[in-house]
Amino acid sequence: MHETQPAGAGATARIASLDILRGAVMVLMAIDHVRVFSGLPAGGPTPGIFFTRWVTHFCAPAFVFLAGTSAFLYGRRHGDLTKFLLVRGAWLVFLELTVLRLAWTFNFDFAHYEMAGVIWVIGWCMIALALMVRWPLRVTAGFGLAVIILHPLIGFPLSGFLASLGAGGAALSKVLYIGFFNGPIRFGADGPNLIVLYSFVPWVGVMAAGYAFGAIIALPPARRDQWCYRIGLGAVALFLVLRGFNLYGDPQPWGASSGGTGPAMPALLSFLNTSKYPASFLFLLMTLGPVIALMPALERTRGALARWFTVFGRVPFFYYVLHIPLIHAIAIVVSLVRLGAVSPWVFANHPMGNPPAPAGYTWSLPLLYLVWAIVIGALYPACRWFAGLRARRTDWWLRYL
């Protein structure tokens, strides 16, 4: 797809399933972000806590993949795709390191803590995609699939080689693949320390594949549905085979004890416990397969719930920027009500680098879900207002929110 295609050429009507999916992703994402401030662990040891975390695993892959698809559809309507991706990508990286970092922590200790989260990696992947949109679409698709499938074979060896080159190479290895393992990236004795939660690989492959998937989304509905079923169900089947026989695609075989110590997880939980950091091939098959397979059904979904998700799905980044500080503020209120005081823990360096929650602070699962429901309900009117604003106006700055 060449970016100089005239604006409006091959324009497509708005795809309802994309808005519904994005909205569902936003709503589910908030569960895990409430969990961060609840003091509960990220998965396990009980099925309730495990699935509270697991159900949110679909969010980041869908978020990144659909960002690529949206870029493709944007390019069909506008002639400035490369510029748009470069500017939006740099803007997202900046916001991650400033506004969102403050929203997570409510502290100003920038000198000692920075986090490269999902918005960071989306920003860098958009910058990379700005170069790839000039490639033939088949090349972009092939690159994306190659990164997704092959990164388990080359990622760790390449990272080891980079780390052997010294401090600069070690830092690059964390940004590209290793992430937060072996500690943060340190910029001098006085910081800041950058914790890379989402490494560039394999997410750049996910966004490139999502961009190429835009060509399928632009097909007539019957053909689009066929391809969605083939790709989505094929990914699920491949996951079941590869995971079932522990053949390839994840560093931790299912059935093994957690981290090699302690009792083994229940079989189902172990089977589903694929690696997110960095996202393994099986993690991406497990999450993207069902998402793609559901798209035909979602395209025909109507009713209040579909309209509700659509509101969030039309303004996903606006929602994202608002929901973290809102969750954080509610956590302060919960601490005050339950403990009689605001625990200093709520001002720690969330969601990475924070110490365990203090005694008596940790929430129950029902409280976690109650706060989640309050957050979603509170954000709906604001998102509906902003979605209406974007529908009525064409100001350039609205593209970046």
Please provide a written account of the structure.
The protein is mainly α and 401 residues long. The chain has one domain. The chain has helices spanning 16-38, 47-54, 59-77, 81-105, 118-132, 137-163, 167-178, 200-217, 221-244, 267-272, 281-299, 304-314, 316-339, 365-392, and strands at 114-116, 185-186, 193-196. It has a three-stranded mixed β-sheet with strand order 1-3-2. β2 (185-186) and β3 form a beta hairpin. The longest helix is centred in the C-terminal third of the chain and has 28 residues, at 365-392. Mean pLDDT is 92; it is low at 1-12.
Query: How many beta strands in the DSSP annotation?
Result: 3
Number of helices: 14
User: How is the largest sheet built, in terms of strand order?
Assistant: 1-3-2
Q: Kindly give the count of domains.
A: 1
Portion of residues in beta strands equals under 5%
Q: Detail the poorly predicted runs.
A: 1-12
> In which range does the helix fraction lie?
55-70%
What would you call the shape?
Answer: globular
Largest sheet: 3 strands, mixed
Secondary-structure content class: mainly alpha
Distance between the termini: 25 Å
**Mean pLDDT over the residues:** 92
Task: Sketch the topology as an H/E string, one letter per element.
Answer: HHHHEHHHEEHHHHHHH
Return Rg in Å: 21 Å
